[in-house]
Amino acid sequence: MLNQIPIEFNQDLDEFHQCNSSKSDSTATPGQFDNVISSQVKFSQIFEDHLNQDGDEFESLNKQLQGVLLTEKSRPSLIKAFSLDMSSYLTHEQLTKNSRRMQQEYEQANNQEREYVFNTYIKNNIVNLSLDKYMHYILEKIIEIGPINFRNIILDQIFTSIKKLVNDLHACKVMQKGLEIMSLYSSESKSQYQQYINFVLEESNFTRRLYTNKIGNQLFQKSLDVFDKYNLEQLLRILDKYILNQNQYSLELSTNQYGCLIVNKIIDIFPKLIDPNTKSLANEIIMRTIQNSSCLIRRQYANYIIQQILEKGQECHKRILLNNYIIKDFVSMSMDKYGSNVADKAIVHGGNQWRLKLWEEEVSVSESSFRKLVNDQFANYPIQRLYEYLSIEYRNEFVALLNRLNDSHFLNHHGQIVLKFSLSNYNIKRLAYKVNSTENIKPTKLQEKNKQLQQIYEQQQQMTSNQMLYQLHLQQQQLMAQQYQWFQYQLQQFISPIEFQQYQAMLVQQSMQMYQQQQQKVSPQFQQSNLNQQEQFTFQQSLQSQDQRNQQTLNYYQQIQSFQNMNQKQYE
């Protein structure tokens, strides 16, 4: 008999299970080894449960994705765009390209794709996306063209963290886009719009700090653009307290680096205002700045407010500023570092009458004032600008004053620069000098351009007509050559019915008449044509060869008639 192979334990777990005292009826406490093994079994069971749960979620997600993309036959490009890598290690060009692709795909996607992307990638990450340099654009795109409920969800989540986000450049842009869209469709986002209005109109220490904040003041500028008349009036009343007015917070917007932008926005929106209350409030602010212009002109940031009035302000405000304040203070303000910029803008936008008044009453009224302006390190720039706008007679006076000072050795380095500039540009009318005459110059330029275009068009038409005649002649020549070959073939055959010969003779006569008529039309026009020499030479050669072929055709025509007579005699 064979020896039986003894049973061996091939696995440690089998040994453990056989030796495990917990399976016995013993009530002894388990050892350390027993606790380790039981914890391993427990954790492995938990891990398997998680795997099964993740597998179920993955399968349900696949089914949902297939239902959206495959069953409905939708394009998966939007999902692919959002699945792209937007990590920070990518270059700026790659990140920008991916962001633009997301926006373009979102514009072209259907509602099911948009819903899937919003629920998967955006809904739970709105705050972080609004802070991202590249991804905040997709939030703006959803607010602009996305469904209403998505827009409201985004605006609600951003408002919950508005104190954190309002000072961020990218998140503030999302808020501005939200204000712009909500002002257009206020009924669709009523509660959200009211939340933002209440925040902007709230007079708290936090919102007051935003007036002079680099990023936060942009929200108030956008509010001045989009608010309706009632909310705009309230906002103007709040801002009016801090623009050239005494207040308990010692807050002055007009002289602040970023606060002055709010004042500029009030000047910018003034022509658009219709409501009398808001218009009167804005007018009071503008008039207050004009009355304090002598101080504001010499401030580092406030001078931009005066420049804004000169460039984009109403004509009534501009005239008051120029005639009552700037012209009286022109010499001293031109010699200031910041005031010289305002003086330059005043010369450009003041008009001819005001410039002549300035020249006669302030600049050339005395040699000392002219000498101060020319020799100053800042004032010499507006003086050069004034020279560009003067007429020839005043330029002569200007140059005479400079020569007198130069002969007396009263011109310093800056004065010598002005002298060289005036002499080199004495007879040059620059673009700035033509500002007031553009309306008269533009029609003449347009007329000259139209005449040139008309001449070019006529030349092209003449060229095309001559070329058409030339092509027509070539076609006629080819037709005659085909007829010549046909007659030659008929003569070689010596067998042709009488009717067919008569028909061919008739064709020859018609072709001869057509050729003569065409030659009479082409010859006079060909003499005046613009064809090149090679085309004219070939054309003349074709005419000569055509005459020879016509002569041959007539000879063949006579031969045909002789053959016709011979055939008739044979039949007889």
TrEMBL record:
Cellular component annotations (GO), alphabetically ordered: cytoplasm
Segments annotated as Pumilio repeats: 121-156, 284-323, 364-400
Pfam assignment, any one: PUF
Signal peptide region: none
Keywords: Repeat
GO biological process: post-transcriptional regulation of gene expression
Family annotation (InterPro entries): PUM-HD, Pumilio_RNA-bd_rpt
Domain PUM-HD: 60-426
GO molecular function, one term: mRNA binding
Domain of life: Eukaryota
Protein's UniProt name: PUM-HD domain-containing protein
